[in-house]
User: Which sequence fits this backbone?
């Protein structure tokens, strides 16, 4: 009888104790990465040089810095330069480039910007998933300037645009 | 199991005691089988994600992803996806009651980065800090979703690149 009671007690303890408290553990992971911000450094503004005054025309400067004119317009002197921006940032994350916010000045309106990034062919300035800039890659800018013809000699115009670069 | 044992009829003699023992053996069998037959499971629906953060130029910064997925802190996210962690925990056929959930052993693998200040939501209960006791057990069948947010603290010593911080979700059944 005593042995039976002991056996019962032992079985009872064995049966109950494993369920008094139990813990279940799951190991899970999170994700994060660290990177450097994008920086844009302007190396050169777009410069058409000096063009013919009081003459309506559309001037085009390529990403190679070559200027051409329509109609009676003409590039007279000075050293034309394409826009040149150095983009720096992540060594691994691609970028999107866009150009906008074209603002006219002194009768000169900008249109049809062209871009060449990292030595690529000149084309649209809407560039998606472009190569990660790393320590620095060059963005060259060309554009068309529509001149109204109202500009007197020895005056200048400084229309503007905005280059936007974001990580994809 | 304790309830089942107590409702058994009291023994009254040697033969009855043998029956009592056999019944307790059944109880023991059920008890040992229970953790296997009704094991709880966790399924990750969404990984807790902080995106790509800007390496500080100096000092220390924080970046928090809340249990709702919103973000705050002194740090800057450069790109990538942020998301609260979402985990479905099932209980099988375990009886109802309360549980305690804790987050333990958070580790980032980088001395310059710490992961902590976890917040959560369990069913309709917001959890401001862990451990949190008195929570309802997971729903039968579909389970219950645990949402988690947390704060990363990191210094300028952090290296660029990816980290996979880890932590334990601990569910205790009193």
Assistant:
């Amino acid at each position: 009888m005593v042995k039976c009671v002991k056996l019962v007690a032992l079985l009872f303890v064995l049966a109950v104790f494993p369920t008094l408290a139990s813990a279940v553990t799951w190991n899970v992971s999170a994700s994060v990465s660290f990177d450097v911000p994008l920086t844009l450094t302007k190396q050169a503004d777009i410069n058409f040089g000096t063009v013919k005054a009081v003459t309506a025309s559309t001037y085009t400067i390529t990403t190679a810095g070559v200027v051409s004119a329509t109609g009676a317009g003409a590039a007279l002197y000075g050293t034309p330069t394409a826009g040149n921006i150095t983009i720096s940032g992540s060594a691994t994350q691609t970028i999107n480039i866009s150009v906008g916010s074209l603002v006219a000045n002194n009768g000169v309106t900008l249109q049809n910007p062209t871009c060449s990034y990292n030595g690529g062919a000149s084309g649209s300035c809407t560039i998606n998933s472009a190569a990660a800039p790393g320590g620095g890659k060059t963005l060259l800018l060309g554009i068309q300037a529509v001149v109204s013809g109202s500009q007197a000699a020895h005056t200048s115009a400084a229309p503007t645009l905005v280059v936007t670069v974001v990580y994809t | 199991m304790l309830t089942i044992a107590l409702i058994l009829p009291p023994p009254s003699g040697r033969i009855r005691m043998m029956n009592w023992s056999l019944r307790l053996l059944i109880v023991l069998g059920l008890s040992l089988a229970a953790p296997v037959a009704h094991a709880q499971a966790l399924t990750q629906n969404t990984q807790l994600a902080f995106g790509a953060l800007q390496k500080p130029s100096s000092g220390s910064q924080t970046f928090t992803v809340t249990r709702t997925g919103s973000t705050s802190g002194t740090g800057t996210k450069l790109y990538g996806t942020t998301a609260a962690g979402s985990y479905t925990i099932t209980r099988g056929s375990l009886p109802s009651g309360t549980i305690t959930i804790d987050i333990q052993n958070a580790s980032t693998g980088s001395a310059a980065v710490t992961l902590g200040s976890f917040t959560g939501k369990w069913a309709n209960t917001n959890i401001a800090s862990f451990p949190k006791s008195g929570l309802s057990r997971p729903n039968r069948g579909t389970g219950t979703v645990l949402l988690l947010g947390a704060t990363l603290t990191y210094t300028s010593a952090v290296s660029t690149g990816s980290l996979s911080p880890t932590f334990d979700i601990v569910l205790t059944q009193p």
Q: What stands out?
A: The longest helix of chain B spans residues 14-37. Chain B touches chain A through 61 residues (CB under 8 Å).
